[in-house]
Write a structure and sequence with these properties.
heterodimer, A: alpha/beta, Rossmann fold, 2 domains, 9-stranded mixed beta sheet, 9 strands, globular, B: mainly alpha, 3-stranded antiparallel beta sheet, 16 helices, 3 strands, 2% strand
């Protein structure tokens, strides 16, 4: 049994109906940090919204927690009232040392997963996420790389082969991992297009703008074009006093589990 | 803790404060306002009045010595800002001065300060809106549009209604806008004042208007300080949102003291430049929009246009900040059962406290309709000064009692001299106001006390941290 990767699942708890279809199944092998959050405008004190909505929000989270637990996940939950959803998400990623954040869209089933690989940076966390979530399941994982200018096909294939090796060493079945290389200039468009054939996407954060890209305003665009769930693997978050200590494999995310 | 007349009890789960959140039993509240945001609240609330409304009025009353009036106001504000910083780091919660006083001195004083602050903010908002009306009228006059009536009150009312509606229905990022507005104002003013100072000291070889410093005598210096003290009400608004400020132990003192120092410097320089350009007497004739004439004199039409625009922005942002603070004080009061819980209700659609905003917006429009710049300003100052004085008293009381929960991370320098001086100065300044303002202020306070006795007789907040 692989370590359960901790995945942050942010839900705007007072909007929308329930957890999207297929998401509980997708997270069956995860340690879910369930974040219910409610964004309030600046003219309202956060405490004011708490007084009024806390009970209602917690009832919703109770339901979600039960559904996720029934599907097999372990769950920790937080309820946050905030003026800035992105700041709250970032803080919880850090506090729980989450490997990835899920943009929880609905999905049909969990059979084919697209893993977008950008380069060698952050592959450790990427592979741990993929192996942890899908290693023990009957799932086909496709490693997908868009080769850059001056990058030969052989280079690209070497990169992906290295990742396959890592996944296998983490307990994945080699037959369930496929690789695919493409060349294009419109990177995001191509990924979104390719994703159409898959049930979910795993991709690296690569730079801070991508989190904004997934959760900020253009999120609607992504959701419109790729309707499925997206795991955004986070780069290692560094605390102030261990600035350059780049040790991987520290996972205290589960320690605070109640 | 007890109950009020309606059987509501104060909210008891005060939560645990960390640098980034307030953690309650079943949820947490994110702190999202950084130092820049907090400074913008303080400076943005204050700078509108002192620079864009008061120079003409102050110069008329006190002559060149109005510079000293502003300096005295700044000194008193600083004497209060330091103790407020200590209290705020010990109790970084929504409600600011009301929270400190109700916890330190009990429900009765809490009611006076809390309701007084709420009403004081309404007077302040109305004052800013009248100032805004003057600027809007000046713009109309500049464009050569002549109306059959004075547009000051009418435009003030329109802007007041628009602000209330926007506060209820708007979900855009108001604090980001506030930051930008304050940034623009500071840049415009720095350029304008630098030029003005160089001109005043004769670099450009023009004649300035030399005159006696105390041309109107000594007493007007103090009464003018009382009048213009409305220009220093903003730092307490920072404490009102203390529950949402990141790293409160560091940012609260820095924002409160910092904003007072920044605006004091700007005010003193502004009055110096303005009186140098025209002489106090002529400046006074220009009234609320005197700065536009100063700018025109120094920099021609482009200067006048820049200051007109800045004046609109500044008074608008002051009014906006005060309306939002007013609605936060309603929240703090209803959380503590001093007002009905219903008063702080939030609607799920916009996430805004519509009852609180409307109950502030209505009275504000009535006050704007009076068009009494000086009366509105003084009553606002009166109600704030009572709170300031009581905050200083609270600090001394808490220091002496030293309850277990009282653990401020910022300690006021020069204790007990600073808080004692702050209290005396605050109460003393009230005495220099016009009798009409004092009368209105006393009536408002008596009403607040009466309401507290009637509605929340059974509620005990002292030490309910």
């Amino acid at each position: 049994m692989t370590d359960r990767p901790s995945i942050l699942v942010p839900v705007r708890v007072l909007e929308g109906e329930s957890l999207p279809e297929g998401v509980p199944d997708l997270l069956a092998d995860a340690h879910v940090v369930l974040l219910g959050y409610h964004v309030i405008p600046d003219q309202t004190a956060t405490g004011q919204a708490r007084l009024q909505f806390e009970e209602r929000a917690n009832r919703r989270l109770d339901e979600f927690e039960e559904i996720l637990t029934d599907a097999g996940a372990t769950v920790e939950r937080r309820l946050v009232f905030t003026h800035d959803g992105q700041q709250t998400i970032d803080r919880l990623i850090y506090e729980h040392d989450c490997l990835a954040v899920l943009a929880p869209n609905a999905t049909r089933g969990v059979e084919d997963i697209l893993v977008a690989v950008r380069g060698t940076v952050g592959t450790d966390r990427l592979t741990r996420t993929v192996a942890g979530l899908f290693g023990d399941r009957d799932v086909t994982v496709t490693l997908y790389h868009i080769a850059g200018e001056g990058e030969s096909d052989a280079d690209a294939q070497t990169l992906l082969d290295g990742l396959v090796e890592r996944l296998v060493s983490l307990g994945m079945d080699e037959d369930s991992v496929e690789t695919r290389v493409e060349r294009t200039n419109a990177v995001l468009d191509t990924i979104i297009e390719a994703a159409d054939d898959y049930d979910a996407v795993v991709m690296g954060e690569s730079d801070p703008s991508l989190t904004t890209f997934v959760f900020g305003l253009p999120a609607d665009q992504v959701a419109d074009r790729f309707l499925g769930p997206v795991f955004v693997v986070q780069r290692e978050r560094q605390t102030d006093d261990e600035e350059k200590e780049d040790e991987e494999g520290e996972d205290d995310g589960g320690d605070e589990a109640a | 803790m007890g109950e009020n007349v309606a059987g509501e009890a104060p909210e008891t789960d005060a939560g645990v404060v960390t640098g980034v959140t307030t953690v309650h039993d079943d949820s947490e509240l994110e702190r999202t306002i950084g130092l820049t945001g907090a400074l913008a609240i303080g400076i943005g609330t204050m700078i509108g009045a002192g620079i864009f409304v008061f120079p003409g009025l102050a110069a008329q009353n006190a002559g060149l010595a109005a510079t000293l009036s502003f300096a005295i106001g700044g000194g008193i504000a600083l004497l209060v800002a330091l103790p407020t910083s200590e209290l705020a780091t010990a109790m970084p919660r929504s409600g600011g001065g009301y929270y400190f006083v109700s916890r330190g001195l009990g429900t009765a004083y809490g009611a006076i300060v809390g309701l007084g602050l709420w009403l004081g903010l309404m007077f302040a908002s109305a004052f800013y809106l009248v100032g805004l009306g003057h600027y809007a009228s000046a713009v109309l006059a500049e464009l050569g549009i002549v109306l059959g009536f004075s547009p000051v009150v009418a435009t003030g009312l329109v802007f007041g209604a628009v602000l209330t509606a926007v506060s209820i229905g708007g979900t855009e990022n108001t604090s980001a806008i506030q930051n930008v507005v304050v940034g623009i104002l500071l840049v415009v003013l720095t350029v304008f004042l630098s030029y003005g100072v160089l001109d005043a000291v004769g670099v450009f070889g023009r004649e300035t208007a030399p005159e006696a410093f105390f041309s109107q005598g000594y007493f007007p210096v103090l009464s003018t300080a009382a009048l213009v003290f409305t220009s220093y009400l903003g730092f307490a608004q920072v404490a009102t949102v203390a529950g949402e400020i990141e790293d409160p132990g560091r940012n609260l003192p820095a924002a409160m003291v910092g904003s007072v120092v920044v605006v004091t410097v700007f005010y003193v320089v502004t009055i110096f430049v303005a009186t140098s350009a025209f002489g106090a007497e002529r400046l006074g004739e220009f009234g609320e929009t005197a700065m536009v004439e100063v700018a025109r004199d120094l920099l021609g039409t482009p200067g006048a246009v820049a200051i007109l625009g800045a004046g609109l922005l500044a008074t608008f942002s002051s009014a906006n900040a005060s309306i939002l603070s007013a609605s936060r004080s309603v929240y703090a009061l209803s959380r503590d059962a001093l007002l009905p819980r219903k008063a702080s209700e939030v609607n799920l659609r916009y996430g805004t406290p519509h009852v609180a905003l409307l109950s502030a917006g209505g009275p504000i429009l009535v006050l704007v309709a009076t068009g009494q710049t000086e009366l509105l300003a003084e009553v606002a100052s009166f109600l704030h000064l009572v709170m300031y004085g009581l905050m200083c008293v609270t600090l001394v009381v808490l220091r002496r009692r030293n309850p277990e929960w009282y653990d401020p991370s910022f300690e006021v320098p020069g204790y007990p001299a600073v808080p004692v001086a702050g209290a005396i100065a605050s109460f003393a300044l009230v005495a220099f106001m016009q009798p009409a303002s004092i009368a209105v202020g006393v009536v408002v306070m008596a009403a607040a006390y009466g309401w507290g006795r009637y509605y929340a007789e059974g509620v005990d907040l002292e030490g309910a941290i």
